[in-house]
Amino acid sequence: MHIWDNTDPQDTGYPSLGVQGFVCDLLFLIRKMIQQTVLVFLTISTGAFGLPNPRILGNECSYKDFNLITRAGWNARPARSPTSLSTPVELVIIHHSYQPGACFNTEDCSTAMRSMQDYHQLSNGWDDIGYNFAVGSDGQAYEGRGWDRVGAHAAGFNIRSIGIVLIGDWVSIVPPEIQLETTKQLIAVGIQLGYISPEYRLVGHRQVRATECPGEALFKEISTWERFSPDV
Ligand SMILES: [Zn+2]
User: Fold this and answer.
1) 96 CA to middle of ligand 1, Å?
2) 66 alpha carbon to ligand 1 midpoint, in Å?
3) CA 198 – CA 193 distance, rounded (Å)
4) What's the pLDDT tens digit per position in 193-204?
5) Which of 14, 55, 140, 184 could, after both became Cys, cross-link 149 (CB 3.0–4.6 A)?
6) Could you tell me which CATH class the domain 67-222 is placed in?
7) Boundaries of every domain in the chain
8) For position 11, what pLDDT does the model report?
9) Cβ-contact 232, 203 below 8 angstroms
10) 19: how many CB neighbours lie within 10 A of its CB?
11) What positions does the domain N-acetylmuramoyl-L-alanine amidase occupy (predicted)?
12) In the 3-class helix/strand/coil scheme, how is 200-228 assigned residue by residue?
């Protein structure tokens, strides 16, 4: 019996990159460069000076169907030494947190993220929160280790998978529809960005380790998803 999800103790970790390297930040950087280029062009072409600097939003990335809260957004502690994930991965592994329980707004989900990071990093001595991403019952995704760092969530499978935790206890009830939908959309984004193979296999944590995770109800739910595989 475990209180927390039984994540992988063979942690390899990654460094204090904060949100650097994450695609959202790259997008913001590109957007900033474009804005500044346009600003310079306007300044030169109109002779106008003193235009306001472009305002860059740094803690959130808005996709078509959901928001992604970056590490800065949930006030993550920096991670440690890096291990790059070889992508695209062939496996997506689904977890539940069990505890912390379900969260329904950014503040509570951010608190849940910090508590998971505290447990993994301070109590277990790992380099960072174990999961690559989390999804809350608020329908938002939260950046864990991100797309391109090896996680610590499924022993023996971390180097070839993306681990997504659906925050909450999903033993007897399924997550809200919006949480399920965001999880699917997050995987779709991972495919679009080239981090997840289009031929990926979706599995639950229990298929690669003796654990109740991701909860009986959630496991039954993901068993109906398109890319679910009974074989790892
Ligand atoms: Zn798990």
Assistant:
1) 6
2) 23
3) 11
4) 999 999 999 999
5) 14
6) alpha beta
7) 67-222
8) 42
9) yes
10) 18
11) 77-215
12) EEEEEHHHCCCCCCCCHHHHHHHCCCCCE
